[in-house]
Structures are given as structure tokens and as C-alpha cells.
């Protein structure tokens, strides 16, 4: 039902309109009556009627003044004015007030009811239009934002359109903040994740809007395509103060996103510029700063003025670094291979001309060339990595900073170098590798001896002993002791076992001898070691 209120100082007329017109039968709820404009305002504020029927001439506050106040607060309200005078001056006032209509007294009840029907129908139509406008508001705001950032429209045009969209562009100086969602592009593009990405973007937008509101600034935060949002920092402070205000605002947004959403954002900002035309300039500055995010890193706030100084390197020596990397990996020199990547990273970070896309492209190429270079050396490893190749490509193209890309390259190179080192050790002396494997599987046998190992690998005891010492730089006895003691420490630390039980499990028939060996190896007795382990757990 639509709500109707009646305001008239003439009690007879007021009661007559209330009682003689079948309001409910016609789909209306009469929410109340008032005897003057002041009472009428209170009635309107309490019930928010869609239609108000009011006399013009009343004591304390007349209908015109009441109508003006009501329209200011409730622009959609429909006011039908009643007057006993066919006075053109009243008609003019009613037009100024944007009253829906006015009728002469005595009021024809059928005519009044018809006016109320038309008024409520118009209110309903306006409501639907407004709902459709609200549904399309993100689109209209996006179009407006493109105009605002393009420098192709006059300040007067921009202010007029902003007002029509309910966007406050008040202030003398403007600085633009560009907000990039750090994890947005890292999310897979499947449908479920797409919805999750958009939810994240809307959540960050809400945080931006709240920070603006809490800072008593106009709510000027908009979405850009993809993983970015734009905020306007408007105020009357001079340019330098505007920039400081923009930085402070950016830090608040970054902290709030981390606190409430457990996500990170990178925010850049332009300088403060005077007038609406300066918004586009400030945006270009913020956008330029954001193009250096792959140098500066994620979860940061910075402007172009704060970018690190670059040397005058003309280019990065990708080809030579690639050759160095392949050579060091082939040699199994893991430390040197990782140093090559770090040197490459340093070169990139001091070269302002290189784009993120170039870094991604080279890294993918480097990995493929590296795999080709070691294919003959480690064919089994290459086969095991075939399924990961596409994964590496997709992952690299989702990474947003040089730090992340180099870290992934280090992980791949480390895995490959470790495999080459292990393979080289195994190929160097298979007999020693087999001896080590046999010890690992049989250390718990009492009386395990060099003779047992030699028999297992079909070699002379003295020869296998010499090989073992040569390859591992420790004797067979030392390696067996090391294996048994490590297992004993594990059992004492993680299991509720007595020292003699542990001795039995690791191949010692004599608990006292086990205790002597354990103390010599660790510096403490088995009992004291267990007490120390338990106290740390406690």
C-alpha cells in the first residue's frame, strides 16, 4: 500500500478527507493527520508517506514552507496542495516547490482521489526508473571515470555529469590513487575462481569507500578492468599537502585490506594537481609508478618520486647469463648457479627499460633452454618434469614481480642441480651407494660388520673400506655409528622408550656400551638427552 498523510489546520476539512474517502479500498494507507506545517514535518519524518495532501495557508508553518523542507529531505515525495484562493501567486509558488498538483477548495473528493492515484503511479514509475538507473550505475560510473581520466572533456562538463551521478568532486586539489590487487591475477581463471576474484575486488572497493568516508572525503572510488581500482583524494590543501594526504590515505587502505581481508594490495599515487583537469595528469603519474611494481615489489605504497634510482645499463645480458647458468648446473655447482640468478636479478633491477613481460619471456626461455642443455645428462629428470613445463609457463605469467619470478627460477634450478649432484654421486661409485643403502636398512642388526657389507657388494673388505673412505670422507665404522646414533636420538625424542630398548632397536646388545657410544657422539647420556627433549616439548 502507498502511504498518504493529510495536513490542514481546518479540523472539519481534515477529518472529512480522512473519513469520507475510502483510502484502504483504493490501496492506500492513511498514516496520520497534522494541524500545521510543523506537525506535518514530524509526521512525514516518522512515516515517510509517498503522497502528502496539504493546505497552503496554516499557522506556525504554511504548506509551502513545509513542502520545501519535505522536498529537500525526501525529493521523491508527491505533494498535493489545497487552497481556498484561485490565486496565480500560489500557482507560481507551487511550481517553484515542484508540487505534484494543487486543488481549489472546496475539494471534490473524487477529483482528489484521482490526483492521488496519478501521484502514486508517478512515484512508482520514478522508483522503477531509479532502480534501473542504480542497476546500471556501475556502467555509467565506469564511462564517467574514463572521461575523467582521459583529459578530453571540459571541467564544466565533468562537474555536471558527476553531479548527475551523485559523485562529489568538491575540492581545489586532486590526487589519484591506483590500487592493484596483488593476488587477483594469481587466481586461476575457472568460473568458480572468477566469481571469487570479483568478490575480492568488490570487497577491496568497499574497504576503499569506507576509508574515504572515515576520512571525511568524498566517496570517489571506482573499478577499473582487471585487477585495479581508482581512488580520488580531493581537498583544498596545496599540492604538496595533497600528495602527503594521498600517501596517508593509501597506507590506511593497505593496512585495512590486510587486516579485514587478509589480502595485500600495491598502491601508487600521483601528485596533487589543481582543478578537475589535473585528475587525468595525477592518474598518468600513478599509472607510470605502477608500471614499476615488478621492480619495487608487492604490498607497497609509492609514487614516481619514490622509485629507486637506476644505473644507465642499456640492456641485460640475458644470453651470457643463460650460458653461465647451463654451465654451472651441468657441473652440479648449485651455489654458483643460484649466484648467476642473483646477479641476473641485480642487473634487471638496475635496468629501467626492461618490462615485466620481457622478464617473464626470458625466464620461460631460460628454463626451456636449460632443460634442453641437460637433457642428455639427466634424461630421467627431464621426463619427470614434462608435466610441469606448462605449469611453469602458466605460473610465470601469473607472477607480478621480479622477486617472485627469480624465486621460482631458483626453485627449479635448485631441484635440477640437486638431482645432478645425486646422480653424479651414484654414478661415481655404485658399490658405495649400495653399501650405504644396506647400512640404512640393516643398522639394527647386532654385530653388523664391514665383512657383511663386503659380502653384500661382492668386494674385498679392504677395498670397499678404502672406496667408502674415499667417497664419503669417513670410515665405514663412523658411518654406521652416525646412522645408529641419529636413529637413537629420534627414538629417544619421539617415543616413550627406555635406553636399553633403544639400544636393542639400533643394534646394540649391550646397553652400557650403547650409553658410552651415545655420550661420546652427543656429549650427554641417553637419559639426560631424553630429559632435555621432554623439557623442550613441555
TrEMBL record:
Entries under CDD domains matching the protein: REC_YesN-like
Keywords (A to Z) from UniProt: Cytoplasm, DNA-binding, Phosphoprotein, Transcription, Transcription regulation, Two-component regulatory system
Xref: InterPro entries: CdaR_GGDEF, CheY-like_superfamily, Homeodomain-like_sf, HptR, HTH_AraC, Sig_transdc_resp-reg_receiver
One GO molecular-function entry: DNA-binding transcription factor activity
Main location: cytoplasm
4-aspartylphosphate PTM sites in chain numbering: 55
A cellular component annotation (GO) from this entry: cytoplasm
GO biological process, alphabetically ordered: phosphorelay signal transduction system
Domain HTH araC/xylS-type: 433-532
Domain of life: Bacteria
Subcellular location per the Swiss-Prot or TrEMBL entry: Cytoplasm
Limits of the Response regulatory domain: 3-120
Record-given protein name: Stage 0 sporulation protein A homolog
Species of the source: Lucifera butyrica
Amino acid at each position: 500500500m502507498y502511504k498518504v498523510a493529510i495536513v490542514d489546520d481546518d479540523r472539519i476539512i481534515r477529518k472529512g478527507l480522512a473519513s469520507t474517502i475510502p483510502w484502504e479500498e483504493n490501496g492506500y494507507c492513511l498514516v496520520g493527520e497534522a494541524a500545521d506545517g510543523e506537525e506535518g514535518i514530524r509526521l512525514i519524518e516518522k512515516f515517510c508517506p509517498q503522497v502528502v495532501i496539504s493546505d497552503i495557508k496554516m499557522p506556525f508553518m504554511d504548506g509551502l514552507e513545509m513542502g520545501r523542507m519535505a522536498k529537500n529531505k525526501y525529493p521523491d515525495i508527491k505533494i498535493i496542495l489545497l487552497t481556498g484562493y484561485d490565486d496565480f501567486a500560489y500557482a507560481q509558488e507551487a511550481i517553484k516547490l515542484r508540487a505534484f498538483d494543487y486543488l481549489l477548495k472546496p475539494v471534490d473528493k473524487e477529483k482528489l482521489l484521482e490526483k492521488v492515484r496519478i501521484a502514486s503511479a508517478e512515484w512508482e514509475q520514478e522508483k522503477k526508473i531509479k532502480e534501473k538507473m542504480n542497476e546500471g550505475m556501475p556502467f555509467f560510473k565506469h564511462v564517467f571515470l574514463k572521461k575523467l581520466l582521459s583529459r578530453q572533456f571540459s571541467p564544466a562538463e565533468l562537474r555536471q555529469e558527476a553531479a548527475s551521478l551523485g559523485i562529489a568532486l568538491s575540492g581545489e586539489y586532486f590526487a589519484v590513487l591506483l590500487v592493484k590487487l596483488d593476488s587477483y591475477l594469481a587466481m586461476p581463471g575457472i568460473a568458480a575462481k572468477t566469481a571469487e576474484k570479483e568478490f575480492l575486488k568488490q570487497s577491496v572497493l568497499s574497504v576503499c569507500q569506507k576509508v574515504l568516508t572515515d576520512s571525511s572525503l568524498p566517496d570517489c572510488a571506482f573499478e577499473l578492468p582487471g585487477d585495479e581500482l581508482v581512488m580520488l583524494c580531493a581537498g583544498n590543501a596545496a599540492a604538496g599537502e595533497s600528495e602527503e594526504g594521498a600517501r596517508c590515505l593509501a597506507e590506511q587502505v593497505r593496512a585495512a585490506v590486510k587486516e579485514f581481508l587478509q589480502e595485500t594490495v600495491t598502491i601508487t599515487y600521483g601528485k596533487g594537481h589543481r582543478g578537475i583537469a589535473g585528475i587525468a595528469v595525477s592518474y598518468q603519474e600513478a599509472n607510470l609508478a605502477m608500471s614499476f611494481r615488478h621492480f619495487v615489489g608487492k604490498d607497497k605504497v609509492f609514487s614516481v618520486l619514490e622509485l629507486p634510482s637506476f644505473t644507465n645499463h642499456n640492456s641485460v645480458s640475458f644470453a651470457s647469463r643463460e650460458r653461465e647458468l647451463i654451465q654451472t648446473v651441468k657441473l652440479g655447482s648449485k651455489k654458483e648457479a643460484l649466484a648467476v640468478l642473483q646477479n641476473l636479478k641485480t642487473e634487471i633491477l638496475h635496468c629501467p627499460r626492461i618490462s615485466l613481460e620481457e622478464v617473464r619471456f626470458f625466464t620461460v626461455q631460460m628454463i626451456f633452454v636449460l632443460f634442453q642443455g641437460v637433457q642428455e645428462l639427466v634424461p630421467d629428470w627431464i621426463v619427470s618434469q614434462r608435466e610441469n613445463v606448462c605449469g611453469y609457463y602458466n605460473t610465470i605469467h601469473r607472477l607480478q614481480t621480479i622477486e617472485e619470478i627469480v624465486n621460482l627460477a631458483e626453485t627449479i634450478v635448485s631441484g635440477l642441480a640437486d638431482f645432478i649432484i645425486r646422480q653424479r654421486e651414484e654414478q661415481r661409485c655404485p658399490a658405495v651407494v649400495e653399501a650405504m643403502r644396506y647400512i640404512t636398512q640393516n643398522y639394527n642388526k647386532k654385530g653388523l660388520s664391514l665383512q657383511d657389507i663386503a659380502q653384500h657388494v661382492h668386494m674385498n673388505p679392504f677395498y670397499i673400506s678404502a672406496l667408502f673412505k674415499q667417497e664419503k670422507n669417513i670410515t665405514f665404522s663412523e658411518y654406521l655409528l652416525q646412522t645408529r646414533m641419529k636413529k637413537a636420538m629420534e627414538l629417544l625424542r619421539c617415543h616413550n622408550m627406555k635406553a636399553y630398548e633403544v639400544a636393542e632397536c639400533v643394534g646394540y646388545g649391550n646397553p652400557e656400551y650403547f650409553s658410552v657410544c651415545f655420550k661420546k657422539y652427543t656429549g650427554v647420556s641417553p637419559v639426560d638427552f631424553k630429559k632435555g627433549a621432554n623439557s623442550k616439548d613441555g
